[in-house]
Amino acid sequence: MKFPEWMASVQRRVEQALEQRLPAAQLAPQRLHQAMRYATLGGGKRVRPLLAFAAGEMAGATPERLDAIACALESIHVYSLVHDDMPCMDDDVLRRGKPTVHVQYDEATALLVGDALQTLAFEQLSTLGLFEDAGNQLRAVALLAKASGSRGMAGGQAIDLDSVGKSITREELEFMHIHKTGALIRAAVMLGALAGTTDDATLERLNHFGKCIGLLFQVVDDILDEVADTATLGKTAGKDAAQDKPTYVSIIGLTPARTLARELAEEAHGTLAPLGAAAQRLKEITDYIVSRPF
Amino acid sequence: MKFPEWMASVQRRVEQALEQRLPAAQLAPQRLHQAMRYATLGGGKRVRPLLAFAAGEMAGATPERLDAIACALESIHVYSLVHDDMPCMDDDVLRRGKPTVHVQYDEATALLVGDALQTLAFEQLSTLGLFEDAGNQLRAVALLAKASGSRGMAGGQAIDLDSVGKSITREELEFMHIHKTGALIRAAVMLGALAGTTDDATLERLNHFGKCIGLLFQVVDDILDEVADTATLGKTAGKDAAQDKPTYVSIIGLTPARTLARELAEEAHGTLAPLGAAAQRLKEITDYIVSRPF
User: Fold this and answer.
1) What is the ipTM of this complex?
2) Where residue B208 sits, what CATH number does that domain have?
């Protein structure tokens, strides 16, 4: 299967898995469940699920197990978007081409949607019998928690808020992104792998790959925020500059940011090389990320 | 040991466990970690930890395991308080006798504090090696997730918001409270028990006890909101009536609410009776809850 077909098939599969695993819209409390579905379904590139499937297929995980992992990852990701968009944070009105949750519903609902989606992620991942080895499954739960909390994604968000309007160094910017975006992207790769293997050498290699790809993803995002338009992004473009947020583009400039993206992609490829043809999808995702239109 | 001493010793122990398990205030991101500690430490009756310790001691769980469970429960509880107090929800300025997190810090920090405390709960409970049996530990994680999410605590909060200013029946009020407060209280009893036993009959009995005590706790809370003053409560008194929120007092009246509290306490005692002297602490907590000054 060619990469675009594989990507489309995983995206369809994940959409269906989310559709089934999110509480039904007619279940009480209905407004909350409707809003959780509104926030999660029908949009997004599903980058974290794609990484989990790519790493999981390489490691021999079953698709059913990867469905649950993909839903957990996407629930965490969407919860963070819903909360980040709220008026007290980024105050944004558009996400994935639709009004944000607090605009479509209200602020209290957006707050609860994010809260309940985070819980749903841990509910998905702790489903009994999901892994043959319960110890390995616990390791996956612990990994997701660590990547999402105050020393991971939520912590990165706090550093981001703190940095608005401040002059920060490239090292500080990198520290922020490794937490804010990188931690969950790395977790996506690791959770997919953990669902199929316990080989430490493979996990260690994929951990380094996850770190490269997480940073790569953010550098490309910063470039896109600078050069793409709102229609292409499905979210408000030029927001970072408008909010005086430090980005790779504002700190090192557009051309060096592009060079950095290519270097990170090369490092990611180099890390995957010893894994041979089995790592094909991970290589293709790397190329896909770096080739997003800019 | 008499009950008041036992209660004080568990509360001290839990305070210390939280102190140790919350990220240090000097760890980056510092403002977030400071605010997480501000929200969690030095206050609260620690009702959920007390229930977990009482059920756990009965079931033969080790204190170390109960520390982690108590911290997980209290992290979930505090996250819900921090988010509930925000301007888009109850908009409250006082909690446990101190300014609420969004007043002391800011709204964005309060949002992230709640988010990161929820994650911390799952991180605590998924710590490798916490239970001898990883399958049983996963069961505990799944139980906490179910009790906290859209079909549990967060869902109850959504129903609560939806009911403001509306006339609801006693059945609807009970449905709301079983979710909003009851689910996590029941989870506290069950997690404590699960840390020491897998006996289905005991777990089933404690599950019913947890349901009674959860509802009892809320009935008493509604009575206290009506009759106690702000200084005694450590939070704003008379808030429910001021916000036109349905309560047991507003729906069935003060005297019938007091009668209901006594009936629920009796049912809780009846459920514990077959467990004999081992259930002593659970019986004492029941009496403690029903005897809170009203």
Assistant:
1) 0.94
2) 1.10.600.10
In a structure prediction context, what are the per-residue pLDDT tens digits for chain B, which is 294 residues long? 999 999 999 999 999 999 999 999 999 999 999 999 999 999 889 999 999 999 999 999 999 999 999 999 999 999 999 999 999 999 999 998 899 999 999 999 999 999 999 999 999 999 999 999 999 999 999 999 999 999 999 999 999 988 888 888 888 888 899 999 999 999 999 999 999 999 999 999 999 999 999 999 999 999 998 887 766 667 676 777 677 788 899 899 999 999 999 999 999 999 999 999 999 999 999 999 998 754
Residues in Cβ contact with A288 at an 8 Å cutoff, skipping those fewer than 6 apart: A3, A7
Whether residue B128 and residue A116 make contact (CB cut-off 8 A), yes or no, is: no
Q: Answer whether residue B126 is part of any domain.
A: yes
**Residue of B112, B148, B150 with shortest CB distance to A158:** B112
Neighbours of A165 (CB within 10 A): 9
Nearest CA in chain B to A143: B123
Listed in sequence order, the residues at least 6 apart from B270 whose beta carbon sits closer than 8 Å to its beta carbon are none
Beta-sheet pairing, B94-95 with A94-95: unpaired
Q: Is residue B291 part of a domain?
A: no
Q: How buried is A173 (Cβ within 10 angstroms: 0-12 exposed, 13-18 middle, 19+ buried)?
A: buried
How many structural domains comprise chain B?
Answer: 1
Cβ of A155 within 8 Å of Cβ of B32? The answer is yes
Across the A/B interface, how many CB contacts are shorter than 8 Å? 158
Supply the range of the domain harboring residue A278.
Answer: 3-290
| Closest in A109, A119, A157 to B149, CB measured | A119
